[in-house]
Design brief:
With 561 residues, the protein is of the alpha/beta class. The protein has four domains: 7-161, Rossmann fold; 177-312, Hect, E3 ligase catalytic domain fold; 332-401 and 492-557, no CATH class; 407-489. The chain contains 19 helices and 19 strands.
């Protein structure tokens, strides 16, 4: 009597996110996990030689690769001899990757003595393969692979369109924002978290290091971005978490300080995968990122963000016992060699003296020390800053009183002059392109040279046209009073009663301090080009200026106003 072999089967079912989100409800139901299981169990009702030993389910996993948890568990069962039969609804549920699907079905399973059944494809490896199977099975795997590739291309294209339209496509909103309940691709400010973001920028502007900011937030018991999202009900996970409870760190703080999302800019598409089969992410070049400016409501002003970016680029290291940097840290520069001046403590006679010295002299002696006492330097900078603030206040006073000076007209005339030059450039590019075509027809230039030069002229013309559009918008903003050209005056004016040198005032109003020697320094103030532009405008409008010898300027007018 011949004993019939009993197969120990694993039912394998899979549903990808694309299948689960299918718009066709009937298709979504036919591909559902429960229906796949029911179909397979109905098929096995009269199969006395097959015993089900496990059900393996990959819900929400793509068929483009075989790195799926349930599939890998099934493979382990096969290797251990627990399973010797695999049953799927059809080949597409098994996998949509042509090469690996064929390798499992054609080589690995036969080598391990595993019976493979794909019900809807009417395939059972036990029954042997006829000539049609040799063609149809690989062909179906190829079709499934092509389908997966097609879906991947469509999804990538769709996401790219969303990015260019300024739609947020991330799974989780950035810390400080939340997704709009009515439009999941729009960002709204999360008042609580946005307040923390503002505090982080404020502390940085006041001289705190990233470590000190993180320590301060942890001391106050403020939840880190990951813990906050989880507390709000998001199942958020990250590979950066190293402890059981995620806490604030200098890295987390720096990411927030560098993120353009807080000034309303949406930057997406920084990473991608090579194709639908390779899931390892790679960084895209910055030129390929999609940046939509002023896409949503900002948390931080452009000015504060720009100052913080400059601060992050400065060498402002501090001792472990110190939480804040000194007011002039990173801004004092040797006038001879251009190296940064560093603050140094010197003890003598039981007293401690603080100096700024040239870092190149300290390291290599290639420059003189340019030693200057810290208190004298800071005092001198404070006095010069007070003078500059007084000058700015005088500018504001004069500009407020004199309404006959056509500042707007001067700005518009300058823009119109530049527009005229660009329009001449556009006209010239058009003429050169036409001449180029005639030269190609006459055989003066080759077709290859024609294509190259034609593209160059087209690109140059497009850049000029874009410049014209921007300048016309500037004129419109001036006429509509939407320009912030003179807003910088307020940055100085708000510190009119300054009594001491603080970090936030220094980084907001001073670009750098050049030290020539202990008796001579030069302070380069922020917006110095804008300051000089106003002086020139006032001069051309009939203003005379006199100096008091201390750097203060007094304005007078030739005509009564």
């Amino acid at each position: 009597m011949i004993t019939k072999k009993i197969y120990h089967a694993a039912i394998y079912v899979r549903l990808s996110k694309e299948d689960g989100d299918a718009k066709d409800a009937k298709k979504a139901e036919s591909n559902s996990i429960s229906n796949q299981k029911n179909l397979i169990k109905d098929f096995l009702k009269d199969k006395e030689d097959i015993v089900i030993v496990s059900e393996r389910v990959d819900d929400g996993y793509s068929g483009s690769n075989f790195e799926r948890p349930a599939f890998q568990m099934m493979l382990e069962d096969i290797k251990k001899g627990i399973v010797d039969c695999v049953i799927v609804k059809d080949l597409s549920r098994f996998g949509r990757e042509y090469i690996d699907s064929g390798r499992y079905i054609e080589r690995l399973f036969p080598a391990l003595g595993v019976r493979f059944i794909a019900i809807n494809d009417n395939y059972d490896s036990l029954e042997g393969k006829d000539q049609s199977d040799e063609i149809i099975i690989p062909f179906k795997n190829l079709i499934n692979d092509a389908y997966c590739r097609d879906i991947s291309i469509k999804i990538r294209s769709h996401l790219e369109v969303k990015r260019k339209n300024g739609e947020f496509i991330g799974a989780f909103a950035p810390y400080g924002y939340r997704k709009d309940e009515t439009d999941r691709n729009s960002l709204l400010i999360d008042t609580c978290a946005a307040g923390v973001v503002k505090d982080i920028f404020r502390m940085k502007l006041h001289g705190y290091s990233q470590d000190a900011i993180a320590e301060r937030l942890n001391d106050l018991g403020i939840l880190s971005p990951m813990e906050y999202k989880n507390a709000m009900g998001s199942n958020y996970r990250t590979s950066f978490k190293t402890n059981e409870r995620a806490v604030w760190s200098s890295v987390t703080v720096r990411r927030i300080l560098e993120n353009e999302v807080y000034i309303g800019n949406l930057v997406q598409g920084k990473q991608t995968t090579p194709n639908h089969k390779v899931k390892k992410t790679v960084q895209r070049p910055e030129s390929d990122w999609i940046r939509i400016e002023k896409n949503h409501e900002p948390v931080i002003s452009d000015r504060d963000f720009a100052i913080v970016q400059r601060l992050l680029g400065l060498d402002t290291r501090i001792s472990p016992s110190q939480k804040e940097v000194y007011p002039l840290s990173g801004l004092v520069v040797c006038a001879d060699c251009g190296a940064a001046m560093i603050r140094k403590n010197v003890s003598a006679g039981g007293k401690k003296y603080l100096y700024y010295v040239c870092s190149r002299n300290k390291e290599t002696k290639e420059c003189s020390s340019h030693r200057i006492a810290a208190d004298k330097l800071e005092g001198a900078v404070l006095e010069l800053l007070k003078v500059q603030i007084d000058n700015v206040l005088d500018l504001q006073r004069i500009m407020g009183k004199i309404t006959s000076i056509p500042f707007q007209e001067l700005d518009i005339k300058e823009l119109e002059k530049r527009i005229e030059g660009k329009e001449e450039e556009i006209k010239r590019c058009r003429e050169l392109r036409n001449m180029l075509y005639e030269d190609m027809k006459d055989g003066i230039v080759s077709k290859e040279d024609y294509m190259e030069l034609h593209e160059a002229y087209t690109e140059k013309r497009a850049l000029a046209e874009d410049a014209v559009r921007k300048m016309k918008q500037e004129i419109k903003d001036i006429l509509d009073s939407n320009t912030g050209k003179y807003q910088w005056l307020d940055y100085f004016a708000e510190h009119r009663n300054i009594g001491s040198l603080t970090r936030n005032v220094v980084v907001g109003l001073i670009d750098c301090v050049w030290v020539k020697d202990k008796k001579e320094i030069e302070v380069v103030f922020s917006f110095s080009d804008c300051y000089q532009e106003i002086l020139n405008s006032l001069y051309h409008a009939g203003c005379t200026a006199s100096y008091d010898g201390q750097g203060r300027i007094h304005f007078e007018w030739k005509e009564a106003v």
